[in-house]
Specification:
Elements: E1 7-11, H1 15-24, E2 30-34, H2 60-69, H3 73-79, E3 83-86, E4 91-95, E5 98-99, E6 108-111, H4 114-126, E7 131-134, E8 137-145, E9 150-158, E10 165-169, E11 172-175, H5 183-189, E12 197-200, E13 205-212, E14 223-226, E15 235-242, E16 246-253, H6 263-271, H7 277-282, E17 292-294, E18 299-302, E19 314-316, E20 322-323, H8 331-349, H9 357-380, H10 393-408, H11 413-423, H12 435-445, H13 448-451
Parallel strand pairs: 1-2, 1-11, 2-7, 4-14, 11-19
Antiparallel strand pairs: 3-6, 4-5, 8-9, 9-10, 12-18, 13-16, 13-17, 14-15, 15-16, 18-20
Helix pairs in contact: 1-4, 1-8, 2-8, 8-9, 10-12
Bound molecules: flavin-adenine dinucleotide (FAD).
Flavin-adenine dinucleotide binds at residues 11-17, 34-37, 48-49, 51, 54-58, 138-139, 176-180, 206, 294, 297, 318-320, 326, 329-333, 335.
Length: 472
Amino acid sequence: MDANRKRAIVLGGSMTGMLAARVLSDHFEHVTIIDRDHLPEVAELRDGTPQARHLHVLLAKGLQIVEDLFPGIKAEMSAKGAVTLIWGQDTTVYMKYGWMPAFDSAIQTLGISRMLLEWCVRERIRVNPRIQTLERTKVKHLVTAENNQRVIGVQIQAKGENTETSALKADLVVDATGRTTHTPEWLVNMGYGQVEESVINSFLGYATRSYKRPETFPKDKKMITIQSLPPNIPRGGVIMEIENDECVVTLAGVNKNYPPTDEDGFLEFARNLLSPAIYDIIRDAEPISNIYGYQRTENRWRHYERLTQWPDGFVVLGDAACAFNPVYGQGMTTGALEALELNKVLTEYTGKNSTGMTKSFQSRLAKVIETPWLMATGEDLRYPGTEGGKTSWQDRLVQKYIERFIDAMPLYPEIADTFVQVMNLITSPTALFQPRILLKVASSLFNRKKVIAKPSTLPTTEVKSQSPTPLT
Ligand SMILES: Cc1cc2nc3c(=O)[nH]c(=O)nc-3n(C[C@H](O)[C@H](O)[C@H](O)COP(=O)(O)OP(=O)(O)OC[C@H]3O[C@@H](n4cnc5c(N)ncnc54)[C@H](O)[C@@H]3O)c2cc1C
């Protein structure tokens, strides 16, 4: 361990903050997480993460990283009721031409509530002897030295009336306070100038309700998705099985097609999706929650990497750096990838002069963000009411290809597997353009009749062969 690394402070004890803290505990003698919330001793909602009510999928790459950082945690989550979910077999999706037939995939993740997931990680953080958590404590400001060129700690204030502020010193401060981060204004006050932002807003809204898992939810399925289809069909929905024999239903609409949060409106929205399958499953099901809406969903990338100067001793990651439209389920996994990048940078600088390390980290972070950003915003920009970006003719060409690719998936389960790997951030999107896959997508154009033979009933888990399979 580097002798100059005594204490690191992590602002924000949500998913990114905890994963960053875990990584930092390999490099610093003491790591302090500061959060304004009381962090519950059970799997329960808290004020700082209201999004936790909504369906959260930890993509396969994220699950892999979480398991690497906390060996055995996946088994712990399963023991607490999380449901193992094999993409292609336990999941199905209603697409333009009907249900995707079951296919073989090695991609696994968990059907788990965000509350249980976060709590399981928190339990591991609690027993890490190097990590201490300061709850109900608000971070007010950064403490700086060397004419604002170095961050040396934070000014904090315990929640409650008339509490004093105090300073906590650190060799590295990590901001993981999410979308509501104060870093842009802190940087302006410190003389670093305005942080440029890219904002692409498809005006997506969620409405979510939890139910007791109904008998009408097919036993061999753990997640059913009814797709929205850009540019003309802005509404979709998902039902996913989670712990305690419960399931969570999230309905989503882009371009201000916000799903209603009253009972009748919610059901009606579900009934009018491309397929009424989710409505059929939930219409007589027993709800165990209210219906909650959520509309703060724009893609927002704060380009810290573009500032010409950056303070030493300070980094920003997670939603505080880049928050995504949640439909693609990338937020937590990107936070995990960013924590790994922090680990790499800290390892490379061990025993060396750390001047410039944090600036270098912010540049490298931008590379981590690039792929999920392009994936999320590329789809959003296909809807006519999306604001904040334009598509070039090259983008449109790629979009057309992806559309053909998705249309070809029911015919060629093998390419569906590649798609699922890319969506789960396991494989680079370049895999979608491999010659053997391009050939299959092209040949699907000559098999269109088979593709559009709309299967109207939910497919079973029976896995189809890898050769073209007529659907009629
Ligand atoms: C509706 C919705 C659905 C989503 N679905 C998915 C999904 O399916 N899959 C996925 O991977 N991601 C999803 N996300 C994104 C995911 O929730 C976030 O990416 C994830 O929580 C990681 O964010 P974070 O840890 O960077 O910040 P956050 O989760 O926002 O946490 C910030 C933390 O900082 C604390 N804090 C804030 N300000 C202060 C302060 N001044 N002082 C002290 N503490 C402070 C807060 O209390 C909180 O604990 C979804 C998001 C939304 C909105």
